[in-house]
Amino acid sequence: MSRPFESLHTTVEDADLLSRMGAGDETALGALYDRYSGMLYAFALRMFQDGQAAEEAVQNTFLAAWRNAASFDARRGKASTWLVAILKNQVRDQMRRSKRKEAFLDDLERDLAAESGPVDHLDALLLAGEVRDAVRRLPPEQRVIIELTYFFGLSHRETATLLRIPLGTVKSRLRLAIERMGDMFDRGRRSR
Fold it and tell me: What is the pTM (predicted TM-score) of this model?
């Protein structure tokens, strides 16, 4: 006897899964994820050469697919093609954000170096490296808030609108991220 979840994974057409997702069926999302996440991950890994970045792109792809499933039109193409197009946009956006973040931190390093002597310059470089490391180690839902508000200069409200989450959630995640980064810096100083 087959279980309903198994049959959803093997017998339901992609377009039907997307239709169910558009109606809020999380099981359909799981089935679509099981079908295509491996292929999408392999593609993203080739683009990034970084497993963590590839995983993030795949997660963001399925999040976007979940949010936009109702707009999928099987007459215009296959679900797999649609998912790959979403992934390509996610990869492009992540690469763009990463370059902007690196440029921001590089500018910060240069600005701090220009205002100070050699010892201060070394301290600034070390601090910028610690900031980079601390941001990388944040959970993704906190890291994105830090990046949008500090690196890209968005307001809390703009960040909430972009991420489609409540303003209070943005503020609490930002507070948690700052606290976590502070703890990382404190532990780093104590270990020296």
Answer: 0.50
